[in-house]
Amino acid sequence: MLQRAFFVVVLMVALGSQALAKEIVFAVDATYPPMEMLDANKQIVGFGPDIVRAIGKAAGFTPVLKNTAWDGIFAGLAAGKYDAVASSVSITEERKQTMDFSEPYFEVQQGVVTAKEAKITSVKDLAGKTIASQMGTTGYFVAKKIEGVKAKSYDEIGLAMEDLYNGRLDAVIADSPVASDYALQHPQYSKKLKLAFTIASDTPEYLGIAVNKGNAEVLKLINEGLKKIKANGEYDAIYAKWFQKK
Amino acid sequence: MSPQRQSPTVKIDIGDGAAIPSKKDRGLFTAWWVAFVGAIVILGSLCLSYPDPYWRILAFLPDGIVVTFQVTLLSILLSLALGLVTGLGRLSQNRVWNLLASTYVEVIRGVPLLVQLFYIYYALGRIEAFSNLPPLAAAVLAMGICYGAYMGEVFRAGIDSIDKGQAEAARSLGFNRRQTMALVILPQAWRTILPPVGNEFIALLKDSSLVSILAVSDLLRRGREFASESFLYFETYTVVALVYLLITLVLSKAVSHMESKLNYYDRS
Amino acid sequence: MTAVDPIIQIHNVFKYFGTLQALSNVCLDVHAGEKVVIIGPSGSGKSTLLRAINRLETIDSGRIIVDGKDVHSGEHDINRIRQELGMVFQNFNLFPHKTVLGNITMAPITLKKMPELEAKNLAMSLLEKVGIRDKADVYPAMLSGGQKQRVAIARALAMQPKIMLFDEPTSALDPEMIGEVLDVMTQLAREGMTMVVVTHEMGFAREVADRIVFMDQGQIMEIAPPNELFANPKHPRTQKFLSQIL
Which of these CATH numbers, 1.10.3720.10, 2.60.40.420, 3.40.640.10, 3.40.50.150, describes B26-267? Predict the structure, then answer.
């Protein structure tokens, strides 16, 4: 016991003041570009991780990102394997029964992707155009509701993007993170496609960071940090980094 | 030196379409009626007893049925033309034509239709010249090319089934090769060819459901769209299956009718 | 070509089926108006020779000249030459999808551009000649063998050929029908048609032939007028053949 305490003291001294900051472990399923993904060096990057790191800096804690499979990610939280889940979790009534959520850090909208040269900047411009989305997704429901368009459904969003890329479609509607990934991040598609604009859905969908019910301490830190970065412009910088044309 | 030439009644059996009802086959004939009446009764009573969702589903499908027929008809026309050229090529003494036809058949038969559809639409779509190919045209092209290979074999077998004496008689009168083929061989081969062609037609109609992968709004895709929104998978696919069944049953009846009409010169 | 040239000249014709010698140095002249009957055991090459005259069989060497035109040289349109050479087959080879009338009028209408009415009148007169005028509108399937062969003769005559080739015209017939076909052929012979007939009907050969050709093993063994050949065959093989069939 004594040995251990000594060891901890030595370690704290060695690491300096940095180590004094509280560590908070976030589970991330890094398979959802550009929200959360692995870069070429297997480091967790993306909009979400950037936000978490900025929150940590602003609120004075050390965020540790732990790559975790989506399947079982909430069970791990309940079991105490990590403190929070920051992995594009939609805030739903059902989830609120078992977990507490931070303030929303992202509103999922429908991103409209078009060819770079297309002159489509609003829903009105879509009239008379052929637009597509993935079958059974919010994007397709939105597409079908737009008046005067020919809405097509695809089995995969990738096939729709491919047809857009080949000039067979005028626009593709997808969840904005997905849309911006194709239009902004993808090495090939981003050369010809752009994220023209976004459409807010009728039932807004927000992403939040989940913690165990009653974990007010961690939740408070996260909300504090989030509030700060939204206020000081850091949030906007990160948003621009991932969702706007470079 | 006169080899005995007989004209055997060749029956080409490529059974991937539907069973064509014939009065000779009582079992199948009855089965046709059982299936047809059964499908109508089930579909009708579902729509009447539970208009929501069954009637709603059925009402969602008609434009998909139209697209399914469009794809099928255009594809069959293309496949007939390709099949004729291929079948003649396979029997031709012209080595280049023969090799081209045989290679086409080998290649196409070795690649799944679904892969061909993807290939023509998405893979070739990357090539400038094909990138503007509308989905319907790509679907027809892929289905036509695929079935053309099978149709080629049907034509070859049909032409092959005609007694060589027929060609000799025509040639001895002074008809050239083309006239012989057009006036003597094909009109007779058509009768042997029709049942398998009808079969291929029905098979093609069913396979046309694959074109939904190209985002062509055919019958199946309409059904899938409905199901993906309503989550009424059981109800939707029940209706879709019944509609397909009714269409193929009507078509197989039509083929058998045409077949009996073509038998006119055998009645003695 | 002068008037005295034979209408068919067969010079030193050889043909092989693999290693089998089907025709071996065959030479034969047929004059206009002449009736030549070819007899011989089966496999002797008589049908092959007949079929070589209108190039239904190719030859390996030698020349066959019909009406001044070399049949196998490729210098002349074979389809034109064949129009001068009517042919009747053992198995009739009527076109089953055409009526009797259609069978007869098809070639003159298509190849000679004969007006339909004229072709029909010609066909009716030919049917009159072969004695089955009443069958004009039926399909071949409804005819007896003898009737079919008479239609086949009428069909060949409709092209108004200079020469008629008969390849065992009665071999596929029931015995009671042989007579009606031979009667038509005899009548045709009397009208002065040039005829080359391969047959086993010795009675017909004796009555109609100007000369009889005896073939065996691809060779012509003996050519003689019927009286001479039947009464006094010179070649031992002819003697043996005749002794077997008479």
Answer: 1.10.3720.10
